[in-house]
Amino acid sequence: MSRVDNLRDRMAGAGQRFDDLRDELFAEPHQGHGSAKVWASVPEMTDETTRAKTGRGWDEWVALIDAGPGRNAGHAAIAAWVSDEHEVDGWWAQTVTVGYERITGLRLPGQMPDGTFSVSRSKSVSMDWSELRLLLDDPVARSAVLPRIDSTERSKPGVKAPKFSISDPETGTDLGVLQFRGDTTASGTRLVVTHEKLPHLHAAKAWKQFWAVWLEELAAEPQGPGE
């Protein structure tokens, strides 16, 4: 059995799961996070760390930004205000802004400034990154790795972390953008899959679970050509 046939057989479960999850993946999001609670979501940095690095805790930052640019100012304007008005360096100005957006419900975990969501999963696999790249660069082999999902390469040849636009083959629905990055390890590759441009949190959660199992199946792919 060829490498591609072997992969097609082993990754068939991913295609079946995609079919099973289609209704969930394409479901409309539940519009239910309009709560006025101050801490709609917990920021990544603790209150103590934020205070140590910026001179203020989260409640203070929320009050200051609400009284300053306000919740409708947008991410870039808030970050610039935090940096310029309060002399916070660029990285921490971004961190404060993202934390503020989470606390106030303007941005959910995994949500990007453009409103879409991004999820990532990683796992060690036995194949070398060079071999994985060859599979991803070959449309036939890629269809075995990503069964029942249409994919189109969107990055330049030879980039370290290639990206692919993916879509549903039956409806043509845009399913976002995949990026693969491989870090060489003693036993193979640490493969990171990042799925960007997801429309809502519901889809992000479904895809995150999908890629976790997908990586498990890819990691189970045996070494040795021609098996």
Could you characterize what this model shows?
- The relative contact order is 0.18.
- This protein is 44% helix and 18% strand.
- It is an alpha+beta fold and 227 residues long.
- Strand 4 (174-185) and strand 5 form a beta hairpin.
- It has helices spanning 3-10, 12-25, 47-54, 58-67, 75-86, 90-103, 129-137, 139-145, 201-219, and strands at residues 117-125, 150-153, 163-167, 174-185, 188-198.
- The chain folds into two domains: 3-29 and 112-219, Alpha-D-Glucose-1,6-Bisphosphate, Chain A, domain 4 (2-Layer Sandwich); 47-103, no CATH class.
- The chain has nine helices and five strands, in the order H-H-H-H-H-H-E-H-H-E-E-E-E-H.
- It is elongated, with a radius of gyration of 21 Å.
- A five-stranded antiparallel beta sheet has the order 1-5-4-3-2.
What's the architecture of the largest domain in CATH terms?
2-Layer Sandwich
> Which strand order spans the largest sheet, edge to edge or round the barrel?
1-5-4-3-2
Q: Write the element-wise H/E pattern from the N-terminal end onward.
A: HHHHHHEHHEEEEH
Flag low-confidence runs: 29-37, 223-227
Rounded mean pLDDT score: 87
